[in-house]
Write a structure and sequence with these properties.
The protein is an alpha/beta fold and 454 residues long. Helix content is 58%, strand content 7%. The chain crosses the membrane at residues 6-24, 33-50, 56-74, 86-106, 112-135, 155-173, 179-199, 231-250.
Length: 454
């Protein structure tokens, strides 16, 4: 029987890796998700063949309940709410890893220094991922609108981490007691909260990716503790891919990961990027005419498009422009939205062809040749101060060069600063026009005007 289980886990590992590779492209992402899902079903099913397995009824009940909730949420959740869903799943994964370690310590299933060290590390990382993901969910859902920063934030972070590590070392050296375990987990959970609470919306995509990586590491460690190859493989795959993605996104913001954690952008108004001038308003009719009679239009979507759920209207507008002979493309910044790939998912859902969607490196050189850049709810990722203002918190961050288009139209709800709290120099440029309002309504008005034009 063990041979069957091992072979099944090998197949699962292959499916996970192939699925992850397929997810690298929007064209094959759906296939990759199906492969990885099939692998997870096989891994779960074959676990029931483990000799001496007990509590099968409870396990079956937990799978039915958990699977039922996940199935309902997967069908019901709006695409705009996907970041919150990802945060919840991150948290559940980390929490499950921490709970496994806690139960193994309580029932005396942890033997040997190596296993104990991995169990403690998995507990610590899993707890941080769990509580940090809960805070991320509350922020993304709008239930936590402010950021809080302690007077000595970094000192508090270091003290909590050090205290948790010392308790973890005591557990490894002397064994666990209920009191020691309880204090250890309280410290670990508190550390996750304290680390995440000061982080504002501008850094949230990187934080989501980092929490995902932590969850993977925690699951991998606990897989070693249980001697379960499927958990080890799944954890390593998630942890490694999440770590690479986090590094890529941090590089895209030109911010080391340590700065995101220890010097976060809180979203409060900050010095730097003090743009001055007048914002010029444009009507939907004028915006429609500018794009209708242009040769090349580049659409830059941001979180404002996601919040308004305007992706379908954007696609309708794009089709009308294409029918009029206008070349329409879409430019995506690596950290646009509230999670990695947020804008790609929304545009794909709306039916935007993959070959019209371009990353920053692919399209930036074309902005000087573009007649109109339409910025929808994006802010910091098109702020020119990132190029020249050394005092700005976003200095050095690669941006989409929308300001270098012949004309720029910005759809924005109001005149406030971006999530990093910095005024956007683009909004005050002579070639920029502001179309105020919800992205959904603003694009709908543009579509209405386009339909009246010959």
């Amino acid at each position: 029987m063990q041979v069957v289980i091992d072979l099944a886990y090998f197949v699962v590992a292959v499916l996970f890796i192939l699925g992850l590779k397929a997810m690298a492209s929007p064209a094959t992402a759906r296939r990759g998700i199906v492969w990885a899902g099939v692998g997870m079903v096989i891994a779960t099913g074959v676990t029931f063949l483990t000799p001496g397995l007990r509590n099968i009824g409870l396990m079956g009940l937990a799978i039915v309940l958990g699977g039922g909730v996940a199935w309902y949420l997967g069908r019901a959740v709006k695409m705009t709410d996907m970041p919150q869903m990802v945060a919840v799943y991150n948290g559940m994964g980390g929490g499950a890893a921490a709970a496994i370690a806690a139960l193994e310590f309580v029932r005396g299933g942890v033997s040997g220094v190596t296993v104990a060290v991995l169990a403690v590390l998995g507990s610590l990382i899993g707890s941080v991922a769990f509580s940090g993901s809960i805070v991320a969910f509350l922020k993304l859902q709008g239930l936590m609108k402010r950021t809080w920063k302690l007077p000595s934030q970094n000192l508090a972070n270091a003290a909590l981490a050090l205290a948790a590590l010392i308790l973890g070392a005591l557990i490894v050296a002397n064994g666990s007691t209920p009191l020691l375990l309880g204090v250890f987990f309280v410290l670990a959970l508190t550390l996750g909260v304290v680390l995440t609470v000061p982080i504002g919306g501008a850094d949230m995509p990187v934080v989501i990716s980092l929490l995902n990586a932590l969850t993977g590491l925690a699951v991998g460690f606990e897989g070693y503790v249980l001697g379960n190859p499927a958990l080890i493989i799944a954890g390593i795959v998630v942890g490694a891919s999440g770590t690479l993605l986090t590094q890529l996104m941090a590089r895209a913001m030109n911010r080391p990961i340590r700065n995101i954690i220890f010097t976060p952008m809180t979203g409060e108004a900050v010095a730097g990027g003090g743009a001055q001038g007048t914002m010029r308003e444009v009507s939907a009719l004028d915006a429609a005419a500018m794009m209708r009679y242009a040769r090349k239009v580049v659409v830059v979507p941001g979180y404002g498009m996601a919040v308004a759920g305007a992706q379908h209207k954007v696609r309708e507008m794009g089709k009308l422009l294409e029918e009029a002979g206008v070349e329409v493309r879409y430019a995506i910044h690596p950290v646009a939205g509230r999670m990695p790939g947020h804008m790609n998912v929304l545009l794909a859902e709306a039916g935007v062809p993959y070959d019209q969607i371009f990353d920053l490196e692919e399209i930036n050189a074309d902005f000087p040749l573009t007649d109109v850049a339409l910025v929808i709810g994006a802010n910091d990722v098109v702020n020119p101060v990132a190029r020249h203002d050394k005092g700005s918190p976003i200095y050095g961050m690669p941006i989409l060069d929308a300001d270098r288009a012949a004309s720029v139209i910005v759809i924005k709800r109001g005149k406030g600063a971006g999530y990093s709290g910095i005024e956007n120099e683009l909004f005050f440029q002579e070639n920029t026009s502001m179309l105020y309002g919800s992205a959904q309504q603003a694009i709908a008005d543009v579509v209405t005007q386009l339909k009246t034009m010959e």
